[in-house]
Amino acid sequence: MEQELIHLKINNIPVTAKKGTKIIEAAKSIGIDIPHLCYHPDQRVKARCRLCSVQVTGKRKLLASCSTEVWEGMEVFTDTQIVRDTQVGILQLIMADHDGDCLTCSKNGHCELQSLCTRFNILKSNLPDVSMHREAVNTNPSLVRNPSKCIKCGRCIRACKDVQGIEALTFANRSDKIIVTTPYNLSMEKTDCTLCGQCSLVCPTGAIVEKDDTQAVLDALQDPEKHVIVQTAPSIRVSIGDAFGLKPGEIKTGQMVTALKMMGFNKVFDTNFGADLTIMEEGAELMDRLKNGGVLPMFTSCSPGWINFIEKHYPELLPHLSSAKSPMSMFGAIAKTYYAKATGIPLDRIFTVSIMPCTAKKFEAARPEMGRDGHQDVDVVLTTRELTKLIKYVGLNFNNLPESEFDSPLGTGSGAGAIFGASGGVMEAALRTVYEKMTGHEAQPLDFTDVRGLADTKEATIDIGGTPIKVAVVNTLLSARKMMERVKSGECDYTFIEVMACPGGCIGGGGQPIGTTNAVRRERIKAIYEIDKDLPIRKSHENPDIIKLYKDFLGEPLGEKAHQLLHTHYHRVHKLYEFD
Amino acid sequence: MTAEKAQAYPIGPELAQKIDHVLDAHDHDATQIVGVLLDVQDLIAEQYVPESVAFYVAQKLPIKVSIIYDCLTFYAALSDKPRAKFPIQICRSVVCKVNDSDSLLERLEKILNIGVGDVTYDGRFTIEEVPCFGACDIAPAVRINGKVYGHLNTDESVKELLAQFI
Amino acid sequence: MTQEVRFITKNFGKYDPMSIDSYLSIGGFEALKRAVEMDGEDIASVIADAKVKGRGGAAYDMGRKWSQARAVKGDHKLNICNADEGEPCTFKDRELIKNDPFNLIEGMIIGGYTVKAQDGYIYMREEYRHLRPLLLNAIKQCEERGFLGHNILGKGFDYHIHLYSGAGAYVCGEGTALIRSIEGKAGRPRMKPPFIKVSGAFALPTCVNNVESFSIVPHLLMDDEHEYTSYGSGESIGTKLVSVAGNVRNPGVFEVPFGTPVRDIIYDLAKGINGGYGLRLIQFGGASGKITDKRILDVPYTYDDLKAAGVTVGSGAILVIDERTSVLDFLRMTQDFFSHESCGQCTPCREGNRHAKIILKKIADGVATEDDIKTLKKIGSIMTLASLCGLGETAQCATLSAMEIFPETFAVGGAK
Q: Which domain covers residue B119, as residue numbers?
């Protein structure tokens, strides 16, 4: 059905827009950026900051351009004196309540409020400072809240509620006492929060940010005693370019590896290798459950936000969860055992860093399950955002760096490992291997396109040697909750369910560069499958380094050694209050 | 008032039953949360909704506890912090002020020996400043647990009022 | 000497508000019986012809509102009685509920019939919780007698009334905030569109009216003598409930014909200023209204005349302040109210009220500069032009009007 077109004028320039378009979007289409803070292209309209107020002929008040739909014959003015005075005035009102320590703020340079002040040349507000100057809330390994930097735009609340269905964050109080907080101001980890970090991804200022662990890495790199190795998650290579001004979805694997090497990491490895290893174990586990009547559907276990979710909210379904560790944690375990043994470097000298798209990975790395003999398998997790900071800190001109290759032996990943970065990737990677293992021949085609894409719930039925296997892929915790309810009610007949906590999977993770919108996510997904398509090896079980690892060290998938290093068990996390 | 104290508020079987009764009376309808919380608050001697009670209501209704907390801190008639058995709400809007509610407040503070926001030693009274509750025709006025008392212009009228609660 | 009239309040004191039989004995529900024999559009026309304007404060043409609400398509529609009377100095709805609850309910049922709503909600402020038993009893008795429920008066029309309580938030008088509160949320207004008439409570088409607006309807339908339209003139027809308080001898609610001079309301009905003090200022329509001085006294109380004189009817409140209170002190009290009642979600209202309060204090302390006064004016402009809802839009009305009427209040001794 063709959509009705609306004709309007913005600053006397004729514009044609589809019915339902908001003024802010219509203005964008002709190159006018109306200032805004609470508006976010992926979120429901809030119309709260009022910064995008514009003049419309015939209207007594100014209209919020984020919430007002265009109408036929509308005349909009975005640059009159009254509009400017109002917008600048609102910005000054916000600034007076903002802890403006920009120089020491972790969002310095990525702050939307800061860039608006730059745009409007606000050097000093004429209003008295009324900000509350509260201490940062720093109670968990993943996220830090700075209440005095909050501008009450409500984006984080929307992300937590509308995307994740968690509602750990809420407004409280009213008038100038209004704050964004948790119920009874509990620390985030005591609430329903899963530390997924989607709030930090949409925060326009520094009010919710990842816990910054860059210094620990800088220190390790300077420590001659340390052998510092790094692994990079499948999605980083397609997202890091954004942070350096490249267009979304550019594949920057080579430059990323070069940057890490120039920074001084002793070895630069690939989490795609860990992903292939995960498929070996998780695939074997699935086949074992199918063969021996294990608990089905089996759930994937790679996404730490998802793990935190099921532990807190659906502990009764934990037996469905694959016992396979995540690629990051498998990699860490191999690094601190196989690699340490192969290189002869003592454990206390090996320092492992993971570059992850995820704030919850910081929590995963700190779990007691993820280590042995007093050593954590992963010493520090950095988000994509923190890696960007490190690259800038070291002074590298990222975009002009030459390309280089991952190191051996933990640097080879298959196409199957590569697609872990996108929702549906784990499922597709597993199917490629499981199909072949169960039928003896390669799946044709090798692409399972039904499970790809940004849709929050996808499903497919695959005929494996005459047995139809029904699978489902969900991303976001809101869809995960719906799926869990279906599993609980027994109404679904899936064999295998992939769950990713973040929209679009890891390419849309809570630790990705600021500006990760759904439009950006789509570009990254394309890039991920581009990488897969171009790789010579596209199935995990054909990765030569994986074959060698099993031959030299692990033995068989699900074998004793594999079990010891690559599997774990998750446990019910009790809520703060539980009543009968 | 500390977080520990709020957490420590125990929900015995008797209170639980009373809360359940409130939830039943509201058909376990989450849209009625404001009414639910007003009724639940009335069950607590200190006229507030302790953290444990909020979580109890959240689980039993069910509703997200964040919505409860938002409501408790948004609506002036609800409280997440302990008040008193008889919170004395004194109107501080213009009409009462121009009818000398300042003197009324002074009298209350003097007689009860507490300031605004404080609780008397016996947990009986607290003084809260509130906006207009529509008793402008009998200003200056106070409101105690839903009931309005006006024309409080003299020491005697204030003492007489307080005597009803002792 | 001006006398009160009894049209909207004609039932006051005539029956026992706890008894439906008592109400029936004075002709209760005759209007409903008449209404259900009429086409809804005709009911809306009766109201429109009498030029009844919404009595909550916005003064929107009520007949037109009902006609528009009636035209909205929907299998399930609602009407809401806004009894969240929160404007300081406004207590007329309290009197209507207290003295004539059955008439209000009859008005709501007629409203439900007219706009084709199946459910009605009364959203009453928590401060009136002592009136809850009265309304609950009235609803129950109406249900028992078949005036509420299924197939009302055998006309195949179903309608139920639900009583919801506010919890102490002035902003919930705003339509979208009221609706959010009914939906079980904190009452922070939302942007429009979607408009309430299309997507209101629970996303259903909703028609919101004030207590007084509903209360007029039964009397109007029974007004064969055309008494109502004999009062007033032009756009201001009929009578209005005004609540007069402040420094007057006889504060209270009075029903006056439109066109009554302001002086008569204040000096005859409210018996003038207490203690013989001089008049400082008068605020119309509640805390969100503008203020003026004695120049208003000889203006007739009509929508147009008050508007021409720079103020509005608003909720019907008339606050009289004598010379013992300075304009500045008055503005600071009003500011305190808005600083307390802003919902805090939109920047202009949250931060504007905060800074306006600071500047008013500076003026009081004698340390304000000309820049401060300019800033105060600018904040007022931003709040008026860019706030999300009516609260922010009108919160600086008093101060901005004071700048016109009482410029000396804002005179500062040059830059300090």
A: 86-163
* All domains of chain A in start order, with CATH: 5-93 (3.10.20.740), 97-211 (3.30.70.20), 215-566 (3.40.50.1780)
Nearest to C337 among B37, B93, B136 (CB): B93
User: Stretch C25-32: mean pLDDT, rounded?
Assistant: 98
Kindly report the three-state secondary structure assignment for every residue of A13-50: EEEEEECCCEHHHHHHHCCCCCCCCCCCCCCCCCCCCC
User: How many beta-carbon pairs under 8 angstroms link A with B?
Assistant: 49
Tell me the average pLDDT of chain C: 96
pLDDT at A271 over 90: yes
Q: Cβ distance C243 to C92 under 8 Å? A: yes
Q: What class has domain C327-410?
A: mainly alpha
User: Domain C20-221: which CATH class?
Assistant: alpha beta
Phi, psi of C126 (to 5 degrees): -60, -30
Q: Is the pLDDT of residue C233 over 50?
A: yes
Question: Does residue B91 sit in the same domain as residue B124?
Answer: yes
CB within 8 Å of chain B, chain A residues 155-184: 167-174, 182-184
pLDDT, average across residues A348-366: 97
User: Does residue B113 share a domain with residue B46?
Assistant: no
Residue range A327-331: mean pLDDT, rounded? 98
* pLDDT one-digit tens code per residue, C116-158: 999 999 999 999 999 999 999 999 999 999 999 999 999 999 9
Residue C84 has pLDDT above 60, yes or no: yes
Chain B: closest CA distance from residue A317 (Å):
19
DSSP B91-150: E-SHHHHHTTHHHHHHHHHHHHT--BT-B-TTS-EEEEEE---S-GGG-S-EEETTEEE-
Q: Scanning the structure block, which residue is given the tokens 């991804």?
A: A201
Asked if residue B114 is part of any domain, the answer here is: yes
B120 within a domain of the structure (yes/no): yes
Report CA Rg, chain A.
Answer: 25
Among C191, C347, C388, whose Cβ lies nearest the Cβ of A94? C347
At C404, the amino acid letter reads E
CA distances from C304 to A187, C36, C229, C265, C295 (A): 56, 35, 17, 17, 16
Do B63 and B101 sit in the same domain of this protein?
no
Name the band, by pLDDT with cuts 50, 70 and 90, for residue A123: low
pLDDT digit string, tens, across residues A180-189: 999 999 999 8
Answer yes or no: do B57 and B92 share one domain: no
Arithmetic mean of pLDDT, C168-185: 96
Pair C178, C210: CB distance under 8 Å: no
Domain C238-322 has CATH 3.10.20.600: yes
Instruction: Please report residues of A whose CB lies closer than 8 A to that of B74.
Output: 171-174
CATH number of the structural domain spanning residue B146: 3.40.30.10
CB contact under 8 A, A50 and C352: no
The answer to whether A577 contacts B70, with C-beta atoms less than 8 Å apart, is no
Residues B99, B150 within the same domain: yes
pLDDT value at A217 more than 80: yes
Three-state DSSP class for A232? strand
Position B80 in a domain: no
Whether the predicted pLDDT of A290 surpasses 60: yes
| Residue B144 maps to a domain | yes
> Which residue among A172, A186, A579 sits closest to B59, beta carbon to beta carbon?
A579
Every domain of chain C with CATH number 3.10.20.600 lies at: 238-322
Query: What's the total number of domains in chain B?
Result: 2
Closest CA to C77 of C172, C179, C201, C213: C201
What is the distance between the alpha carbons of residues A112 and A129, in angstroms, rounded to a whole number? 20
Tokens of A30: 């002709």
Q: Contact at 8 Å (CB) between A330 and A212?
A: no
Looking at the predicted structure, is the pLDDT value of residue B7 above 70? no
Chain B, chain C: beta-carbon pairs less than 8 Å apart: 130
The distance from CA B56 to its chain's CA centroid, rounded to whole angstroms, is 20
- Residues B129-151 have pLDDT tens digits of 999 998 999 999 999 999 999 99
